[in-house]
Write a structure and sequence with these properties.
This protein is an alpha+beta fold. It is built from ten helices and 21 strands. It has a six-stranded mixed beta sheet with strand order 6-7-8-3-9-10, sandwiched between helices. Strands 13-12-11-14-21 form a five-stranded antiparallel beta sheet. It has a four-stranded antiparallel beta sheet with strand order 2-1-4-5, covered by helices on one side. Helix 4 (136-148) packs parallel to helix 5 (166-183).
Length: 383
Amino acid sequence: MSEVSLKKLTKVYGGTTVVDHIDLTVPDGTLTSILGPSGCGKTTTLRMISGLEDISGGKLYMGNTVVNDIPSGDRNIAMVFQNYALFPHMTVFKNIAFGLRTYKLSKADIKKRVSETIKILELEGLEDRLPRELSGGQRQRVALARAAVKKAEYFLLDEPLSNLDAQLRTSARKELVKLHEMYRPTFIYVTHDQIEAMTIGQNVVLMNKGEIQMQDTPYNIYHRPINVFTARFIGSPPMNIARMKVDGNTLCTGGTRIPLSEEWKKQIGDAKEILFGIRPENIVLEKDKTEGAAEVEIKYMENYGNKLGTYFNVGENEFIAMQEQYAQTGIGEKLYWRPDYTKMSFFDCQTEKNIGYPEAYLTVADKGWDPCNALISRGGEIG
């Protein structure tokens, strides 16, 4: 079993806690992304798992074994670093074969395994080149090949695609997923890029200030954020959030009045104020007033090529809506806005935690996930 479990794992530098008593389970053979802003503790967590960083507190299990004091070389891991860490004086073939020297394999077995890996990662014809003679994408594939050839139980990757341009990153993501599907190791992938995290990870772990904010599927991370930090960090542009007063079956702020269904009113309960959240793509902008829509003035617009980012104020809060490219809208124009009432999120004003979602508004995708990991009821927690 290649499950990785962190139990109250902690790292302290001097008097500063950079990883704060986190609990995390990475199931055997899965691909998990650890995402977060710079300085959130994600790389330090990966380094503790790898054995490159001492553990200040808590326990780290690999399978059923506590590995806190087991050296990195004895943990059956393969690592890929941000800077690739290739030996500049070695050829592609020798770089890939280097990690096998400790496996006591015959020269014939090493050649066979390296050649197979070179073929899988499409490095044929480059065996005798030095790293300086390779493109960035080729060096990245050599780093992956050096990790893959070991056939380790655990693959640990620290922002391995950050030095590649956008087009190469897209193709490299496919190679990573293909590599995982072939060998089925336990993958832990650290990144600050949410697109990478969501497209690569079967599960996504979001960290901030040394703590895990949310651990769930990409769908739930995006559509069912457990707190305000998650809602604002995930998505580009991020979720619009505004504090609103609850007046019976209506939400109110700055002239905007949003009607609440009975299901949402029951979910909100007795709260007098609530933090309202809506994704930009779930806002409707119309030229004619409809029930529940409020008039706003367009303040600014951004052209994304396929969409128009349209900015306006809701009370004292700046909102952005995503419109179709062909929308006939201009700065200073008056329009009417309303949310898609089935795709709203609400957060407690004090704790900033999601209050949950009415059963009636859950989608087929929601119901397809493990209910232990979905925010279904009021005050739901992520498992």
